[in-house]
Amino acid sequence: MDEDRELKKVIYRFILRLCSIDGWVSKQAEYYLIEIGKPAVPALIETLNYNKEWKVRSHAAEALGKIKDALAVPVLVKALNDGRKEVQDNAKRALIEIGPPAVPLLIEALRIDSCHIRWNVVYALGAIRDASAVPSLTEALNDPDALVQDEATVALGKIGAVHALINALHHENVHVRRNAAMALADTKDPRAVRALVDTLKEEDARLFAARALAKVGFDNITLNDKILCLLILDKTGDIQLMGNAVFPALFKAMTDKDSKIRKNSAWVLGLFGEPALSAFNEAYINGNIQYELAEIFYKTLNNKLKSKKFEKGCTALPMKGSIDSNDNEMKQMLFKKLDLRHKTRDTRPYNGNRKPETLKRCMVVGK
Q1: What is the DSSP letter of 350?
Q2: Domain tally for the chain?
Q3: What is the domain-level CATH number for residue 49?
Q4: What pLDDT digit, counting tens, does each position of 275-320 carry?
Q5: Burial label, 145 (beta-carbon count in 10 A; 0-12, 13-18, 19+)
Q6: Of all helices (H) and strands (E), which one includes residue 42?
Q7: CA 260, CA 184: separation in Å to the nearest integer?
């Protein structure tokens, strides 16, 4: 009994030192209370609950986390809604350090009305990484507060809940979809890769899916899906490095429902120069290519080959290797359909009284 009484006096003395205005003294008091361990928990709980000084409450929360006694979980959960952020952060870290014993009470705390507490609870559950929290975190994806939804996705990613994350790819919250995609990339699970490839077809989530697949790597997906990812991410230089083998995938991308993807694929194909011309001409004449895409392709090709000099009035497209030079009927069919316009310089002499027009549009058609 005497020993217990003396120990309580020592604990009370150190609790008082937590209130010192000298930071070194209060930190030393916290250290000794941690050394005392579980016997100091009741006094620290009382301090965290009732002390008016936020610095004292902060020291008490930190000490409870170091001692790791589950008895402190209720008061630490309550401290997540403290008026001072420093106390909230120390309480959150303390709950994380206590670990799995804190999970049941944290799950119950998800029903608290305060969205601020719920966000901190979700963060703590994600850091603890206990699989028993997955059902509750999945429910938190439908929390009234968007920030809680967002953090619940991050928490599920830390735990590695692949199935829940796959479902989150279709969530109405754009941040949830983004976090779900990136979390799936971190799991490197084959199911995650298949789900991300399927998500490339959905306009509202395809950007996040493409970023996630780029993070995972393109080793386990088809060439068509790889090219689509690179087009979505505007990594056209990577496509050019892959050579002529990408032509079929680019033609497929020209049928995509997103106009930006269709235009990008036509533009990239034009950057390949003459090797792409024969295949494109054939597809265009057969009616498989939209006029708008053909115009983008041929203009890009002209820019690619602008070092070649074309006579005024001649076609702006090189015919070698694409269409037989003797097949005049096919040439006329192609260029009448295209009706391309080409920029040329004004050749009128400068008379000293006016500035010449630098550029004038004129029609360029086949001979």
Answers
A1: P
A2: 1
A3: 1.25.10.10
A4: 888 888 888 877 778 888 888 888 888 887 764 443 333 344 433 3
A5: middle
A6: helix 41-50
A7: 26
